[in-house]
Amino acid sequence: MEKPCPSEMQPLAYEPYEDEIELMDLLKVLWKWKYLILAGTLFCAVAAVVVSLNMTKVWGITTVFQSGMVRVMEDGKTVYIDSPENIKTVIESGALNGAVLKDIRFPDGNGKTESVEFKVTVPKNTNAVKVVYETPYKDIGLHILKNLNHGLVERYAGMVAYHREKFDMEIGQRVAAIEDQKALLEATKREIQILDKTIDELEKEIRLINENTASLLKQRDRFVSNETDTKNILSAILFTNTIQQNMALDKTSRDDLSRYRSQKETQLLKLETTQNMIKSLENEIKSMEFKKESIQNIQILKSPRTTESPVKPKTRLNVALAGVVGLFLTIFLSFFVEYILKYKSREAAEP
Prior knowledge:
10% strand; 6 strands; two-stranded antiparallel sheet; alpha+beta; four-stranded antiparallel beta sheet
């Protein structure tokens, strides 16, 4: 009977740390395949450059506008013809496609398109709207954004006209009220002139009555101082009656004078009130005219402009991403090839 070989009788030695991966082993693999890694990374980066340079250049065209102002309320709050969010919705919904694409034809053989996509944003804490249109045709893009601005202005022109007409109506009402007040003012002035004339006549009449009364008193006193006879007594009585009548007429005239002066004061107050009313209406008209002129349609803050460089393709970003992807792929490939080589060497070592 054959004796087994010593090598067959001894069990295989087992290395407990054979499956453990040390950092140094990883670094050795990376160093061993460094040229493959560098070549793969460089190849991916160069490929990204070539692809990016052969891609169609896309330009970004930007315009910025804000909603027009309708009026400023008494509390200082501004009222606009529309909110930026609503304008953003109008643009994104394609409601202006007809105006935007008017007379627009793309040179790619597609003829006239039916829609166009914009990137619309509302900057925070502003009333502005920013619109970006990306296209490989700069001139056409500029034309499209100009049409967009013009379309927005036309869309809100009716609303602007409506608010201005409201001010025109209010101004017309104030103008009519001023004409009425001016007519009242002229009538009041004529009334004051009549009262002035009446007062002057009453004052003259009162002076004449007083002069006549003073003359009658003197004549009566002269008759009374003479010898008393029947004739003198009768004359004195007649003078006394006339004097009493003059005094009664004087009182009546003074009452009338006081009444007419009171009426004049009333008319003067009415005249001042009417003049103040006219001034107030004129100030209201000036204020309304200013508010009317302050009504604004869409305000173009930034006319359509193209970017200095294409927004697409982003060559630097593409090269960076391709380089990173190539680096990871070649590293993975290096470890995979290393594993295959080690596996084959172990297979070849086994009997």
